[in-house]
Amino acid sequence: MSHPLSSMNTADATLNLRGVSRSFGNAKALDGITLSVRDGEMVAVLGRSGAGKSTLLNLINRLIDPTEGEIWCGERNVSQLRGRALLDWRRESAMIFQRFNLVSRLNVITNVLTGRLAHAPRLPKLIGRFTDHDRDVAIDALEALGMAEFALRRADELSGGQQQRVAIARALVQQPRIILADEPVASLDPVNSRAVMEALRHINQHRGITVLCNLHSVPLAREYCERAVALAKGKLVYDGPVSGLDDATLAVIYGSTDALAEAH
Amino acid sequence: MTDTATSDSMVSAEPLHRSQFRATWRAHRWQKARVSLTGVLVLVALIIFSARLGEVDLAHLWDRLPRLTSYFGRMVPNLAWETLWVDLAKWYWNGGKWLASLWQTVLIAVYATLFGAALAYIFSFLAARNLTPAPWIGIAARRTLEFARTVPELVFAVLFVFAFGIGPLAGVLAIALHSFGALGKLFGDVAENANLDEVKGVRSTGANWWQTMVYGATPQVLPDYLSYGLLRFEINVRAASVLGFVGAGGIGQDLYGAIKSFHHTDISAIALMLIAAVIAIDSLCSWLRGRVIGQEGLRAL
Amino acid sequence: MTKDNIRRRRDDLPELYPRRGIAAWRLWLTLALGSILFFWGLDVLGFSLQRLASGSQRLGDVLLMMWPPQSKGQFWTYLNGIGQTLAMAFLGTLTASILAFVLCLFGARNIMPLGPVRFIVRRSSDVIRGLDSLIWAIFFVSIVGIGPFAGVLAIAINDMGVLTKLFAEALENTEKDQIKGVRSTGASRIQTIRFGVLPQVIPVLVANSLYFLESNVRSATILGVVGAGGIGFYLMDRMMISAWREVAFIVIMILFTVAVIDSLSRALRARLLGQTTISGR
Ligand SMILES: Nc1ncnc2c1ncn2[C@@H]1O[C@H](COP(=O)(O)OP(=O)(O)OP(=O)(O)O)[C@@H](O)[C@H]1O
Ligand SMILES: [Mg+2]
Fold first, then answer.
1. Which residues of A touch B195 (CB under 8 A)?
2. How high is the ipTM of this complex?
3. Do residues C37 and C131 share a domain?
């Protein structure tokens, strides 16, 4: 398969977290997480608010550093990466955010092109000189998500669902091996939510990109993922197939029945 | 402040008995009066003390007032309606030279603002607490900016005239350095208020620090930066007009010369040119600022 | 995707790709002209690599000669100079604020109905602002003689120009609703101004005055250059005789003073206005 957006790396890309913890001051946001995600999986990350889901994804992308433990991707110790190697890793593990995190004053195509900043040559990009190849890739991604016609619109003129699709396009042009989606549908209506989840599934199935997806909704997790992991107060409390998410397990994950009802 | 407690009790839930209310009210008034009385006393003491230090002498000023009028009187040129053109030509006998100096003044301000703003742009991101690549870099950058904006332009100018020789080069460098400090502080404050979500989005793609600043932060801050830069340009035109006093170029040299040698009509001729130029530049800048703000629909300023 | 596809799209969506052909030429031409203009200006101003290099070397020498800073037993003289500077800034700003407060009433549209009066006030404040305070300082030195009094007058006049404009704008930006509210109670014009307009603008005026006090401390440090008193006189004097260690000492004293005044005025602003930011600037 030689799709221009698929990753060219064929080395083993199993993601391994080994006893990863992260504290903010005295509070432990994550506590001894050990987790393994195989190449090409689509995994839902569940947990109530404040459980540490965002922290987990930020750690994997290395936007923040773990206080304890190690993160490995194949043969690479991700938690030790510095400099250029670190930036390359961020490129390989693309992020999608709940609030889209697009640059509101830039137009759509430039927002997508920021996903190409980590690709050589880096210097001309400081003054907006992206290569034609970069542009091809960006437009291709926008077309794949049905957003090409908005290419010259300012990002903040778009609806939430449209912005999220632009954000996915930005993630795609990074040519990542993993996509880390932090509650990608939490600010969207049901129709847009499904569209975005479909897009993620499509990317996972057709491009072989691993997807880790924080979700608030258990039904969405059941529908789109085979596997779920769950956090509660920073600890891993469930790791298994979505079919194993019975009421007893959910009670453990969400604590009270109120929160459980909310999750349904 | 001290009187908040009493005023709070006045609005508290239970209706107060009238005499109680009056007592509270009186106490409140008294407290307020005491605070303002001390304020006034301190102010008066400060004024008297400063007047001694500042050698303020109003009687002396009154004595010298005739001088002021005669000074102005001598600055008014001889203009007669019949010989207007000849008189004007006589008044502006050195007009070409002065115009060149004025042009140099504006040029000094333009380049100083450009250099100062460019450097301030870079330093603002280094200095902003939420964007700086490392805390110690942030501290170092903020101290540098503080130093550059506290030392007056004219002090830098004397130093640079000494080092680089007499002429506008020293002036450009002096004003640029001071503007760097002043703008760097203002820019840094703007950058500290930037929306970090947008920055984070760019950073997560693997962009390096510079790329993150250019694509994640700059679009947000640019309108404010431009607006502050224009404001600084207006200030710099005025600053450049006096650099000549210490030999750092511009029209100040001509003005200083005229004042020192009591060529009164020259003084008024030069001052009028200068004022006209400054007013013209100010209105141009505020028009430009309006356009920047209008187009981008921005928040601050 | 095939090469053909890509070519077709580049033709379909040219606006998403860098300009080509004539359009690209225009861009390069503008850039080229711009840089020619830029370097021409540098040349006019006497920039040259050689001058910059030799100058930097001399600058480095001077900076080395500044170490270690020394007062040579003149500390109290310098401290007095600093005191004069502060006094000049304080009295100058105070006088300017009072004068500007009176004048701005004549320059604000919602208070002074007569257009010509407003025009005269506004324009004369523009003219005053057009000249740097150093020029006013020379002027007043020749009126009242050398000394800090000339500095006080220079600051007072110059800032009166700036503050009048700022105050008048603050007055014009007052909320119409509050004014209407007062007027609806049957208040006279003067009463409306007193109870409807002034309460809204006083905080802005005070904040601006304090802000100007801060910035005047900085500018008052150099008025001594033309004989208008303060620490600037000693600074310039020591520079002229190349007493660099004393220059460094004085500069450090100035830095210290400015830092103290800045934090004082910040604290005062916070006390008087409760954390509000300066609006109307
Ligand atoms: N930058 C930070 N500084 C201090 N504490 C933080 C920081 N980021 C997260 N935390 C804390 O870490 C814990 C986990 O936060 P996190 O954002 O990972 O939760 P979450 O599961 O993503 O919640 P939500 O569903 O609300 O997004 C919370 O208690 C939070 O307060
Ligand atoms: Mg979260």
1. 104
2. 0.90
3. no
